[in-house]
Amino acid sequence: MKNYSKKDWNTDLDMAKKTTTQSKLKAGIFIDNANFFYAQKNAGWKVDIAKFKKLIKKELDVQFTHYHIAIPARWDKSYAQTQKYIGILKKQSTIYSKPLKYIRAQNTTVKKGDVDLEVALDVVRHIDDLGVFVVISGDSDYVELRKYVLEKKKKIVFVSFRQNMAWEIKRGKYILFDDIRGYVELGTKTPGYYPGRLLLSILYTKNPKKSTPSDGAR
Question: What b/e string do you get for 88-98 counting C-beta neighbours within 10 Å, with b at 16 or more?
């Protein structure tokens, strides 16, 4: 990660001030459903993407929300439920899908729906169009993607739940859904006030203290 000098620090603060008073940075939201789905399941509550997008738009000029998901086969009992879910998502996201893989292992079938490569390539394709990349995932597989985005002098922030945020990801910029639950939880009333500069305060501050494996998900 970048080591901040006094000059770097002042430059970033100046950029933050200009962003808040003049124009918002263009941003894209990229969602890894494979990681997001199980993270919500483990947390015991769900995120309303529309609420999250509304929250982010208070600070950034969100150009789009891309939702990457693997679709079960028609014979799979989860197919109908997935289609229903996608129908809801289409109202606030562009869906990018691929077939779910079924791998036969001994006497069982393992489902594989990883979309991290698709998300990474999506980010790369838009590297010249955006200033900020918001990736909903806490998977350590995205460490190299983070390096790439930073090398291009762009900003990237990862969003996930505390127990699913890899310690490697915590070495950079990240947001925990747990900390903004009141504003993004599905099926609940949102507070009438805004929590302040959520993203800008993260994007334009020094990198957080380096985490170790004991601080979060591996």
Answer: ebeebbebbbe
Q: What is the pLDDT of residues 91-110, one digit of tens each?
A: 889 999 999 999 988 888 88
Q: What does CATH list as the number for 36-213?
A: 3.40.50.1010
What is the model's pTM? 0.81
SS (H, E, C) 30-88: EEEHHHHHHHHHHHCCCECHHHHHHHHCCCCEEEEEEEEEEECCCCCCCHHHHHHHHHH
Positive or negative: CA dihedral 19, 197, 27, 16? positive
| Per-domain residue ranges of the chain | 36-213
DSSP-assigned letter for residue 203: H
> Tokens 């996201």 appear where?
93
